[in-house]
# Entry
Amino acid sequence: MITGRFFAAGADRRIAITIFILLAAAIVVPLLNLAVSPTSALYVPAYIVALTGKYLCYALLALSLDLVWGYCGILSLGHGAFFALGGYAMGMYLMRQIGSRGVYGNPILPDFMVFLNYKELPWFWHGFDHFWFAAIMVLAVPGLLAFVFGWFAFRSRVTGVYLSIITQAMTYALLLAFFRNDMGFGGNNGLTDFKDILGFNVQADATRSALFAASAVMLALAVFITWAIVGSKYGKLLMAVRDAESRTRFLGWRAENVKLFAFTVSAVMAGIAGALYVPQVGIINPGEFEPSNSIEVVIWAAVGGRGTIVGPIIGALLVNAGKSWFTGVLPELWLFALGGLFVAVTLLLPKGIIGMWDSWRGNAKALRAASVAEEAGTKVVVASATSRPARSPARNPGEWSLSDPEPQAAE
Amino acid sequence: MSKSNTILYLDGVSVSFDGFRAINNLSLVLDKGEMRAIIGPNGAGKTTMMDIVTGKTRPDEGEVFFDGQVDLTRHDEAEIAMMGIGRKFQKPTVFESHTIEDNLMLALKGPRSIFPALFHRRSAAEARQIDDILGVIRLGDKRHELAANLSHGQKQWLEIGMLLAQDPKLLLVDEPVAGMTDAETEETARLLKDIARDHSVIVVEHDMHFVRELGVKVTCLHEGSVLSEGTLDFVSADERVVEVYLGR
# Structure
């Protein structure tokens, strides 16, 4: 009982540390960029601020995927679509802020509309000159799409690989739609050439630092919200649906509603990530709907450790840092490296980096497995399991069943 | 037949899968407070019958009534569970990555919508109910263990405990003693007899010793309909039952 509480506190401590680091970064990194002289060793160049800000958006996207994949077993291969929709909503606001500074100098119509002979603003562009309206759309559009999509998919009891395939089809359909010029979202070129956000120049160092801080704070908030959701009775239900969906139905729970809530919350989080991403990279185009983007998100979460809150964040940061480095050094090999990484993680680290870390430390899981083994009378193995931390992704007796309970197909 | 005073009433129920008649004109009546054992060879339709009662499968024809008046064919699993029918699966199905306590907490009778669950705080009354059930299923000392660590027999008990937490009027228990030792089997028989004091129960089981220990009316199913019904001695003396099930 006490050990249970201790380990629970251990997991909470990890969340607290993560939130603290993110909030500290939100203050320190902008300070080191703005207040420190460029000649100082502590100076953080603007491009690093922009790059890490982008990574934080990816981390938020990975966390949103983890909420549905890690905790509810819904392998969404279309989360990039929610990210891109949030990004487009923000992009539309940024386009409207350009005003008459565009190449064609039209105060109302963005450049691509003038170029494509639009006579007036399409109805769905109205309101995006206000930040508050765009902010609501950043939440509402991905949330609504996820709600409607999930409503049909989960009620029809589409699960497993079939669900993954239709999420993939969803993002592909959106990709094709957004490529069309007459969709009114800039077609192939997307939305770019942004000038201002809330009256501040998006290129300015101070704005970039502020966007970095906003991303870090938003990620910290998302970590907290995910932690609160996962720790609640609903969160336990979410995992119960993952492990034995029919059991929850026969207990009277509506598994489709359980999934729908998580899926919608997750899509909103992905949308926020996209909205923070766009002003930092300066462009949003249909390429963001590319199915391979969504698959990459799955890899980040898998590398870091799905079903943990911190894991996907670490995974997203590490893989993207690796990508930045790799594409600089050996650009043609990056995709092979990424594919190899996914294979390696699946085979060698089924619980990701966080899972490996936990078994190295021989903490909660190994100790509990040991106490189980002790009851079973296998003292010898226990001694070796507790006296030294196992160096490999340890195989203590009972640990598999503990860390990776098999989802059961009920009768 | 009158439906009043019945907890479960099946009349002329048939269902086929791809032309195979899993249930064929099945009629079965369970009185309120009754415990019934159902036996029969593999493929006799025992599990399909439970699927029909719990709303997982819709019958092609026939009447299925709960508590004398509720037409079960019009409701889905979650609604039927909320009306008070609990079901234990053949293969013990518990939430392996949760503790015993949390398993019971998720099963406890109460609101079943998302937002109450999101802001739920465990009340003293709930803690007491969980304690009671842990006592009944004899898993009190393992309450903080993960369900994955339980033995097969203990998982069966936990699942029965989850049924109790639901506080159903009717329990459908599919092969509760599969894979249990003799001692555990006896213990389970005692547990079910306790439960049957204030619940209606249907037990599907192959273990004839266990059925004998329950000491209740027995129904033998064969090819989707009732072959024989009565006391265990009557049923096991029936020529046809011997022929298709017990063997000579």
